[in-house]
Structure formats: C-alpha cells, structure tokens
Design a protein that fits this description.
It is built from nine helices and two strands. The chain is 79% helix and 3% strand. A two-stranded antiparallel sheet has the order 1-2. It is globular, with a radius of gyration of 18 Å. Helix 2 crosses helix 3. It has one domain. The chain is mainly alpha-helical.
Length: 272
C-alpha cells in the first residue's frame, strides 16, 4: 500500500532546486574554510554542518521527544569531533564509544517519554541514524589530518558536491526513467552523478601516471556512488515528509556528505 504522502509526487522544482543551491553553499563553504583556515576552519565547517543536520533531521523526520533528540545529536557531534581531534594520530576507534553511549542514551530517552509513547521504534531509529550521521561528519576532521589529507579532503568534498549538484540538476530536467513512483529522481541522474565525481577526482590527480589515474578513478567512483545513493535515500525522506520546510534541503545537502566521509577516510588512509 502506498503511503498517503507519496500518492502525489512532489514538484521537481521544489524538490531539487533548493537542495542544489544548498549543495553549492555547503561545498564552497567547506572547501574555502579548509583551504584558508586549515584544521580550525575544518572544525568550524564540520560543527556548523552537524548543528544544521541535527536540527533539520529532527524537524524533517518528526522524531518524537524533540528536545531530547536535539540534545543527543548535539552531544554526539561534540563527542565525535573530540574523538577525531584529541588523539595524536587520526583514528576512528573513539567513535565506537560515542555511538555506544549515544545508543544507550537514545534508548533511555525514548523509553522515558510520557505514556502513551507513539512511534517509539520509529523515533528511536531516527535518533540512532542521526547519531551515526553526525559522527560520520566528524570523520572529515580525521581525513584532513592524514598524510596528504588536506588534498584528499578537498578532492572528496568537491567530488561529492559535484555528484549531488549534477544529480539534482539532471533530475530537475529529466527525472526519467523514474527509479520509484512518488520520488522525482531518475536513473540518468544517478549514473551521471557518479561520473561527475569521477571527473572531479581525475581533474585533481597529482600526475597523469597510470597509478594516480586508477587511484583517482577509484576515489571518485566510490565517493560518487555513496553520495548518489544517499541522495536518493534523502529524496525518499523529502518526498514522504513534504511539510518539513527549510529542513528538507539541509538533509538532502548534508546527509550524503556524512555518508561519504568514512569512505573518503578509508581510501585516503590506504593511499587510494
């Protein structure tokens, strides 16, 4: 049975244009702050994106226990940032503690809501996904601290931004063949989004050697694929939660970057 919110397909213009504009702002902001301010700039950029995503996700998804969810998201963001910056060498081990404590706190928070507790499981799932997302954004800080990490971070952010922008603009014009009813996203946008990320990675490779070319191809394809698929997932949320206002484009622009950050770290760590 089709959910009522998906029976009427949202306008392609309202679905994609605000998100595309915000993608440009996010990509440019992270790139400029990272290039001009170094680690401090990256921390500012990541913190702003985390705060925006926490607020937007809680509003867009309609999580019950809103104030507690906002507090949990903010605490997880702060803990994840600290875990990425405090060790001498960047590593992701500290995120396990942040996620474990956050998961326990989310269970307690949802179970202590005033009775009756409607949508308890759905709200708990939404909070857990939020904790994972803000923690993933913090991984951008770890990428920047790797050997040649500043270049890998900038390339990754630009590749993800290009993938999202091309995907939204193409779906704005040609959302066919449609991937699913009720969501104005087509297969060409998904494919060309990945190719756009590959093009950015290839353009920013250090040399034209075969090894650098293959590394750039892998880096761009992996990040573009993750960003494109997560963008599609965000579009599902937007199509279902049409009344989210300003929060919906924020989810569309920031959530794919969060999903791509751990992939960028893994590839940069191994020199891919």
């Amino acid at each position: 049975m089709t959910p009522p919110a998906l029976e009427q397909e949202p306008s392609s213009r309202t679905h994609h244009l605000p998100a595309a504009g915000l993608v440009v702002v996010v990509t440019a902001g992270v790139a400029v702050l990272s290039e001009t301010q170094g680690e401090r700039g990256r921390l500012i950029a990541v913190a702003v994106l985390q705060v925006a995503l926490v607020a937007a996700w809680v509003i867009a998804t309609g999580i019950r226990g809103r104030l507690g969810s906002l507090a949990l998201g903010a605490a997880a963001a702060a803990g994840a940032d600290a875990a990425m910056l405090l060790p001498d060498r960047p590593q992701l081990d500290g995120l396990l503690a942040v996620l474990a404590l956050g998961f326990l706190a989310a269970i307690v928070h949802q179970m202590t809501r005033p009775s009756p507790r409607p949508y308890l499981v759905a709200s708990l799932a939404g909070v857990v996904l939020l904790l994972c997302s803000v923690s993933s954004l913090a991984v951008l800080l770890a990428v920047g601290r790797l050997d040649d990490g500043e270049r890998a971070l900038l390339t990754g952010v630009l590749a993800v931004g290009a993938a999202l922008l091309v995907g939204h603009l193409l779906d704005l014009v040609v959302p066919r063949p449609q991937i699913t009813a009720g969501v104005p996203c087509g297969l060409p946008g998904l494919v060309l989004a990945v190719l756009a990320a590959v093009a950015v990675a290839l353009a920013r490779r250090e040399s034209g050697s075969l090894l650098d070319t293959l590394s750039a191809l892998t880096y761009g394809a992996a990040l573009g694929g993750v960003a494109a698929l997560m963008s599609l997932g965000a579009s599902y949320v937007v199509a279902e939660r049409g009344g989210g206002g300003w929060a919906l484009p924020v989810v569309q622009a920031v959530l794919p970057l969060a999903a791509a950050a751990p992939v960028a770290y893994a590839l940069a760590l191994h020199g891919t």
